[in-house]
Design brief:
Length: 702
């Protein structure tokens, strides 16, 4: 037990030093207007004296007991003076008998000390004296705690601000004494470990007590950070867990023989497995966080911490190098502890489509994720959709009829946050349900709305930067075209020179031979240059005429089948209105892409069908396929090419050509399975009906 003696010496010495410093600080820096400043200095000084005596002498010495009696009487007097801080002189008259009674019980300790030294000659008398002394100390601690509770509960609001630090310190000191002497009374001996820690406890309680005498103590408050609170609760749970395991292990002492050892080993294995599985779990951490926020904090969120985390998430890509869209989803999901989320953005027609998926596995999002009407409702109302309310039939702004079924039916869908920039919907973030379920409240709506607007500005800025980048690439394209024009000018100059010389030397045979060679070379160069230009330019104005979609498709298929198998599986006679040369050029681009994505032996399949108002060409391959991210961000982006020196505008040009005829291109693709391009053009008959029904359209076409 030598280590206990060393611990006791260190603890009481530390307590003596800190209590002495606290007494000096209260005497010199304490609020001089408080009438209890002198009693406070006396009480803390006598506590330092008791710690000094306990460190200098062995436990149980008379001088140690006498200094403890003096310390307790000083603290009772301090408690009595605290009742006068509220100006309640009448209260002092009512409290005085109770305080004097406690002081009298404490004075009886001196009598018991004399009895224990001189008259407790037998073991029974010594035990009786010890039990009486412990019982008296328990009575004093209980009485002091009752008075302290009445003091704080009955104090005015302004007085509570002054009393809270002093009351908290005294409550901690007497609660420690109550447990210490209760254990001593029950067990018949004071635990040496707790006895050694009494000095540290005195030092710990002296510090906040001294702080309470600061002139500005009414404005001081103990506000631990949320991180510290969560860690403290985690340690508390872990400590309780190990205390339970210890209690179970101690209870096994009742068993005997091999059964004891076998049970202990089994308990150790079970405890270790439970600790590894349960303690690190996300569910436990989530429960601790929700419990702490609900009961310990006024607000759900620590806004400073949330904003710092939000800024770091948006501004740092990290090792996984995720896109801004995915970081935007993560930033919102981190606020609500959602494990996953997706981002929907508006397409060119105003409907919502998938733009980013952050850790949401197994979700099937259709190509048109949400209708245009829902985007309009969210723009007008700035509504954050609570899916639990939605499923319960609550309709706030008409969103019930517009939320698609795939959102409503997925139980993981918890909230949808609109991203608004200048009252325009930039995107919609769908958040999954947190591990620890809870209901969305006003703090969630306020914070998610503010963060949603900030994210919308980031996404809008990125879109603007992308548009500027594309404009710069078009400028680069125009500069390259200037070189092409320079070549044309050179050829034109050569032809003009040839013409002038022909006027002079046309009758010479050798000149005519050279002229034919020069003309042939110039024509070849011009044809090559025009063919190259034809691949990158779309006619701005063309004469629309009727043509057979199936026949045009068949001609392209036959021409390209010489380099790769191209099969026209199904063909219907479909008369459309447009430019067959533009269609031919678009189909060449799309079929060539399919050929390059397929194996040499895997054919590209074509189908020509009609659906009543439009004709459709399906271009199907069984190639490597494309990811959803590439379909959204790379397929129809100009100047993105994997070929050295290529402009990379083939798919972009094909889409623009089809759009110039009033049609559209749709794409479906799965990685590892293949791709389907669908080219849609309106039937000639449908155009005729539209013209007859709308004179304005007819005039415009004319």
């Amino acid at each position: 037990m030598d280590w206990i003696g060393s611990l006791s010496y260190i603890a009481y010495t530390t307590g003596a030093i800190i209590c002495a410093l606290a007494a000096i600080w209260i005497a010199r820096k304490g609020d001089a207007t408080r009438g209890d400043r002198i009693p406070a200095v006396l009480a803390v000084a006598l506590t330092a004296n008791w710690c000094f005596a306990a460190a200098s002498f062995e436990p149980g010495r008379a001088i140690v007991e006498l200094t403890e009696i003096a310390r307790n009487l000083a603290w009772l007097f301090m408690l009595f003076r605290l009742f006068g801080n509220d100006g309640r002189d009448e209260t002092l008259r009512l409290v005085r008998p109770a305080v004097f009674s406690l002081a009298f019980v404490e004075v009886l300790q001196f009598v018991l000390l004399v009895i224990a030294r001189r008259y407790a000659v037998t073991t029974d008398l010594a035990e009786l004296t010890y039990e009486t002394a412990a019982l008296f100390r328990v009575m004093v601690a209980v009485g002091a705690l009752v008075l302290l509770h009445n003091l704080y509960a009955g104090a005015a609001t302004s007085s509570r601000q002054i009393l809270r630090w002093s009351a908290a310190s005294l409550a901690g000191m007497w609660a420690f004494d109550l447990n210490y002497f209760t254990i001593g009374y029950i067990t018949g001996a004071y635990p040496p470990e707790l006895a050694a820690l009494r000095g540290i406890a005195a030092a710990v309680f002296a510090i906040p007590f001294a702080i309470g005498f600061n002139r500005h103590s009414s404005h001081l408050a103990f506000r631990p950070s949320r991180a510290v609170t969560f860690r403290f609760l985690s340690l508390l749970v872990i400590g309780g867990y190990f205390a339970l395991m210890l209690a179970l292990a101690r209870s096994l002492d009742m068993l005997t023989g091999d059964l004891t050892r076998m049970t202990q080993v089994g308990l150790i294995i079970a405890a270790g497995a439970l600790a590894l599985i349960w303690l690190p779990s996300d569910r436990l951490r989530g429960w601790l966080r929700v419990t702490a926020i609900k009961h310990l904090f006024k607000h759900r969120y620590d806004y400073r911490t949330e904003w710092i985390r939000f800024t770091e998430t948006i501004g740092t890509t990290g090792f996984d190098n995720i896109s801004l869209q995915e970081r935007a989803v993560k930033a919102l999901a981190d606020i609500t502890d959602s494990p996953s989320g997706i981002l929907l953005v508006a397409d060119e027609e105003g409907a919502l489509e998938l733009a980013a998926n952050w850790r949401w596995t197994g979700i099937e999002v259709p190509s048109q994720a949400a209708p245009t009407g829902l985007a309009g409702v969210l723009e007008r109302s700035e509504l954050i959709i609570d899916f639990d309310e939605l499923r319960a039939g609550i309709d706030r702004d008409g969103e019930q009829a517009l939320v698609p079924g795939w959102m409503r039916e997925d139980p993981r869908a918890w909230a949808a946050v609109p991203l608004l920039h200048f009252d325009r919907l930039v995107g919609l973030v769908l958040l999954s349900r947190p591990v620890i379920e809870r209901k969305l409240d006003w703090e969630d709506f306020d914070l998610l709305g503010v963060v949603g607007r900030q994210l919308a500005s980031y996404l809008a800025e990125q879109a603007s930067q992308t548009a500027l980048l594309e404009a710069g690439r078009f400028d680069e394209f125009n500069r390259r075209m200037a070189f092409v024009m320079h070549d044309i000018k050179n050829l034109s100059s050569q032809m003009a020179l040839l013409l002038r010389n022909a006027e002079k030397h046309a009758d010479k045979l050798e000149f005519r031979k050279d002229m034919l060679v020069t003309l042939r070379n110039s024509v070849d160069k011009l044809n090559t240059l025009l063919a190259r230009l034809g691949r990158y330019g779309a006619p701005e104005n063309f004469a629309a005429r009727e043509f057979n979609l199936a026949e045009s498709t068949r001609q392209v298929a036959e021409r390209l089948s010489t380099v790769h198998p191209v099969a026209l599986l199904h063909s219907e006679e479909v008369i459309v209105e447009g430019n067959p040369e533009a269609l031919d050029q678009a189909l060449v681009h799309l079929i060539q892409n399919a050929i390059e994505a397929s194996d040499p032996s895997s054919p590209v399949m074509l189908e020509v069908v009609r659906d009543g108002i439009s004709g459709k060409i399906h271009i199907i391959d069984n190639g490597c396929g494309m990811s959803q991210q590439f379909l959204r961000k790379g397929l129809f982006k100009p100047f993105v090419s994997s070929k050295s020196g290529g402009f990379g505008i083939g798919a972009f040009e094909a889409r623009e050509l089809i759009r110039s005829m009033g049609g559209r291109i749709d794409v479906e693709s799965r990685e590892g399975l293949g791709t389907r391009f669908t080219v849609s053009l309106q039937l000639q008959s449908a155009n005729s009906v539209l013209r007859r029904g709308s004179p304005g359209i007819e005039n415009e076409v004319a």
